[in-house]
Amino acid sequence: MGNIKRIFALIITLFVISAFSRSTFSEQLKHKRQNKDNGLFTPYIPLEPTPNPITRSYEVELSQINLAPDGFTKTIFAINGQYPGTVIHANKGDRIQVTVKNNIGEPSVIHWHGMFQRGTNWYDGVSGQTQCPIPNGSSFVYDFSTQEQRGTFWYHAHTHGQYMEGIRAPLIIHDPNDPYRKDYDFEYIITMSDWYHQRVSDMLAIRMSPNYGGRNPIPDSGLISGAGRYNCSAAPPGSECRENNPLAEYKVTPGKKYRLRLINTSGLSHFMFSIDNHPLKIIEADGEYSKPVIVNKLPVAIGQRYSVIIDANQKVDNYWMRATIDDRCLLINNQTVNFDSAINYNVTGILKYDGAGLGYPTSTEYPDQLEPCLSIDPNLLKTLEPQQIPGPATNKIQLVVTFRDDDQNVTRAFINNSSFVVDDNNPTLEKFVSDDVPLDQFPANQNIYAYDQLGGTIDIAYINNNSAIHPIHMHGHNFYVLGTGSGIVVDESKLNLVDPFPRDTFVVNSTSWSVFRYKADNPGVWSIHCHIEWHVEMGMIAQLIELPTELSKVTIPESVSNLCKQQDNSNSKRSKFSRRNRLFNTDMKRIKV
């Protein structure tokens, strides 16, 4: 009888284990089905080269759906019914045509983060600066060439915090002449993002309300490639929340090497990325090849991208993939929206070797030796090929950032004592090019800085005179990071004029300065702003009007101008000025030509 009981107990135990394994496997399959269409969890090889550049067409539908990336079901803004959205692939030199169908219930735009848009400034996708938004129920075609660009990019909404609701996805420009192609077998894309359960528009209304005493709203979770795990015990009563939501899982084959394209698509959070037992060999940052640099942990600020190569040369097992949110960057008090968030800052996924078991990893994290909240040391990265650094500077622009309450007791960000206010239905490009509005007739709150010497060298001294840390992103260019330092006075002895690395996003520390340099060769209206989306909405934006004489000669496509005609014109009548009066002796305190 005792043997029979033991056998029966063994059968029950095996049944429970089998059921658990089937349940876990079922959840993994469900997770893969949810993400199958965006291709993030499938290894791929670069696009085949073509004899000549071709046009690659995509359709992107923006809509509202219910989704639970971290287990908590909420209504999100989705791209083609998924999050993250559809990955766009092209080769260097190809033309990209994307038809955007807007069905989210409000106007929207799409910005192509990191793309220079040479000759197509009107497709940069910034509401109130380069275009009017796409009305709900309408479609719009973005049509631009990748030209000589290659690397890792992304696209996202650029109006009223919408990308934090889900309108964000990778954009990959492959290089048929990739100098590192022989160093890896396959590629993966890995996105890192923070995630909010409340509607961003509701939180934004609170953040921008008079006498709000808190800081930027705290996320509820962090996601790796759209997958995370929320503590459902903290969910409000009546919520739909699935415990132990499946984690992101990337499979590798022993002996193979993988190029991982890392993208921080967050609205607030700075990530530190690592994979236990697997050093990261950096080969690209923000679309620029670098000489190989090996690190164990890599800081990835909002808007930044890296390509790293890993070698699947460890024993067959599961290893933790870590995208840790650096909570040292988060300023918080008990008046902050969601200050008591149940967020787990230690966001994880799994690197799974072929042949490894189903269990969770038991690997050990690398020690943390990173400076809190900053970019990788700018002097650590060097361009793969020597580059001619422009200079000396023909124009110097100083942008001093402060935060304070305005006359309505709303906390705003100020650049040189002016807080940007978006005018969605009267974009700068249309007013300047089509409506002949001289630059000195723009309101001061448009934060316009102009320079007009073709081929000139521009130095921007970005002075952060507040306690927050800001990932600064510039449209239309990569800039050379000449130097950075503490205090609010630039120390020119610290500038690297020999071999600085070019980026389009760089973190400016609290109470510190950074100097960016680039060549004036891309006429347009280019935004430079903090990529913390809450700070964007608080007015931390300047507009760089590059080469206005050349810009005044362009013809904006009718499809772009028609977007403005579709908007409510009751408050958007724009005065007309003659073209001959457009260029002028400017107020040098605000605008520099």
UniProtKB/TrEMBL annotation:
Per the database record, which ranges form the Plastocyanin-like domain? 64-177, 187-356, 426-548
Superkingdom as given in the UniProt entry: Eukaryota
Q: Which PROSITE patterns would you find in this protein's record?
A: MULTICOPPER_OXIDASE1 (PS00079), MULTICOPPER_OXIDASE2 (PS00080)
| Signal peptide (UniProt feature, chain positions) | 1-26
Coiled coil, from the record? none
Record-level Gene Ontology MF annotations: copper ion binding; oxidoreductase activity
| Pfam families in the record | Cu-oxidase (PF00394), Cu-oxidase_2 (PF07731), Cu-oxidase_3 (PF07732)
Return the InterPro entries for the record.
Answer: Cu-oxidase-like_N, Cu-oxidase_2nd, Cu-oxidase_C, Cu-oxidase_fam, Cu_oxidase_CS, Cu_oxidase_Cu_BS, Cupredoxin
Q: What keywords sit in the KW lines? A: Copper, Metal-binding, Oxidoreductase, Signal
Please give the family membership noted in the entry: Belongs to the multicopper oxidase family.
Q: Which PANTHER family match?
A: LACCASE (PTHR11709:SF511), MULTI-COPPER OXIDASE (PTHR11709)
Q: Kindly provide the name given to this protein in its UniProt entry.
A: Fet5p
**Naturally occurring in which organism (per UniProt):** Rhizophagus irregularis (strain DAOM 181602 / DAOM 197198 / MUCL 43194)
Taxon lineage: Eukaryota, Fungi, Fungi incertae sedis, Mucoromycota, Glomeromycotina
